[in-house]
Amino acid sequence: MNNKTKVATLSVISNSVLIAMKLFVGIITGSVSILSEAIHSSMDLVAAIIAFFSVRISDRPADVNHPYGHGKVENISGVIESLLIFIASIWIIFESVKKIMYPSEEIESFALGFIVMFISAAVNFVVSKKLYKVAKQEDSVALEADALHLKTDVYTALGVGVGLLLIWITKLNFLDPVVAILVALFILKEAFELLKSAFNPLLDFKLSDKEIQNIEEAISKHSSVYCDFHNLRTRKSGNVKYIDLHLVVPENMSVKSAHDICDIIEADLENSLKNTEVMIHLESCTNHCGDCQYLNKEHCKHN
């Protein structure tokens, strides 16, 4: 079992335990904010299960039907997870508004509710840190999405805990659904960011400006042995970054020399950006500016 699968399994287990705790305490206390947290954790569990299967599928090697691999399964997973968060948030707001309009029994066992929320925040903080660490190492959008779920759970659990404390101090029970609505609005904001992050690669959106800058710098390091480069294109599938470009070389350069240059540039790009596949299309300089030497390409730059 690799690191991605291990942390995905840990997320499934921790979410299952926390859901049981929150449901039990939510029913005992009658707190809609605690019950909303249980629902939020249920969405986290579904997300964790989706992440678990998506990282396993995305690690499969390319095959006849999927020559570019299975990486985009992770992006699909991220989109589904973000949509689940939207659904959970809207449900929480709906139930909270009902609680404000038709208040029911008072909340009981504040101490128990506060303790459970603190435990939930602490557990999710530890698990989300592990998920983020592996997500960064493996460049996994599915694990990053799962980590984001748990990160929001940390803040929302603390928010509910503080809300319960305020209710206990002020005796104003309407604060419970108000806190739940604030929690849901925060979750909606995080869900939008996650949806954007997961959905863009499905449209072959370019890499970040910083990554493109790194790519251009890596190519430019070898500018003394080529004339120009253009048509730089980038995209991402799962954790794999795809780069292709056109490299213009002197007209009198041998095929072997041009091929060697491509190998060196590809190696540099793959070293500077993890999980990268590079495709370089060679072009011959057509400016006919005399005996083109590797260090004399000022005219070629005027293409």
UniProtKB/TrEMBL annotation:
Residues 207-285 form the Cation efflux protein cytoplasmic domain. Pfam families: Cation_efflux, ZT_dimer. InterPro entries: Cation_efflux (IPR002524), Cation_efflux_CTD (IPR027470), Cation_efflux_CTD_sf (IPR036837), Cation_efflux_TM (IPR058533), Cation_efflux_TMD_sf (IPR027469), CDF_Transporter (IPR050291). Residues 9-203 form the Cation efflux protein transmembrane domain. Its main location: membrane. It is a multi-pass membrane protein. The chain crosses the membrane at residues 12-32, 38-55, 76-94, 109-127, 174-192. Keywords: Membrane, Transmembrane, Transmembrane helix, Transport. It is found in: Membrane. Belongs to the cation diffusion facilitator (CDF) transporter (TC 2.A.4) family. NCBIfam families: CDF. This is Cation transporter. It comes from Clostridium cibarium.
